[in-house]
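Sorry to interrupt, but I need a hand with the structure work. Can you supply me with one protein entry, sequence and fold together? No commentary is needed, just the two lines. Leave the record below and I will have a look.
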Amino acid sequence: MTIRYPRPLRPGDRVGVTSPSSGVPEVLRGRLAAAVRTVEERGYEVVTGRCMDGSTHISAPAAERAAELTGMLIDPSIRAVVPPWGGETGIDLLPLLDFEAIGRAEPTWVVGYSDMSTLITPLTLRTGVATVHGNCLMETPYRPPEGLASWLDVVAAPQGRPFTQTPPGRYRAAGRDDWIAEPGIRDLTLDAEGAWTRLDGNGDLDVEGRLIGGCIETLASVAGTPYLDTAGFAGEEPLLVYVEACEDNAFTVCRNLHGMRLAGFFDRAAAVLVGRTRAPGSPTLSQHEAVLDALGPLGVPVVADVECGHVPPFLPLVNGARGRVLHSAERSQIVQTLD
């Protein structure tokens, strides 16, 4: 399978907003408006769909959500699609999406993480179209710290030109901003120090491969199905697999990662990147230990506390991009090339 990249966005392009999983409640519409303005400030036109209701855990019935997402992805006038955030049960769209029509259409960027992993990762694996695992619309107003990019930077990046991200060494340890009281807040609170952690041993790391991955809680539900089949993906190139946990405890994360490994998701991994998490450990099994228990048998480097999950700040990763990870006591970085 050849990876196909949507063309870089340029001013005047249209960005579609829809909620394939959870919509936005009325009390947070101020934050939604601020996020839309942030996208418009880049010179893009924002087109908001009808599936945005936030009164329950889904924005609309599954058939309507699937039709709206598919419609945006095959509409040649829409160059990128971004949800307000993730949700809970986006998995119900998978049998309803028209993957063949999406694969035939001119590629469109799709952005998201968390429950959106259930959709963007299968989209890349089934169609070969690159997708962005990155901050969603409601987080877009935040200014990335030095060294990191926004999804808005990624979708405008020239194809074939490498771009590098480096961890800022700080993250948000607890709490979250009040988007009701401060809907336009743009400054991230990064109140703790932290660097990448190599779990499998010591020594410098320099490894390359195609990026693929997402949220453990959602991807584990489709492991072993055609929606998470990496056979034939990007030929036989090695993979840089990234995973991250939102809130599941260490025992659940351990079981899910074991299951994903047994289902073959990590078979071609040259290395595994693990997102920083606030999810709880236990007195006998930490989150780091859970990862190593499940993925240690792979015999590949495992690097944890990467900024690719639910703990701010956000380091966008492109499913399908060629990646190179460098990690040592002196520096850590990931280079992505859209080729």
DSSP finds eight helices and 16 strands in the chain. Residues 29-41 form the longest helix (13 residues).
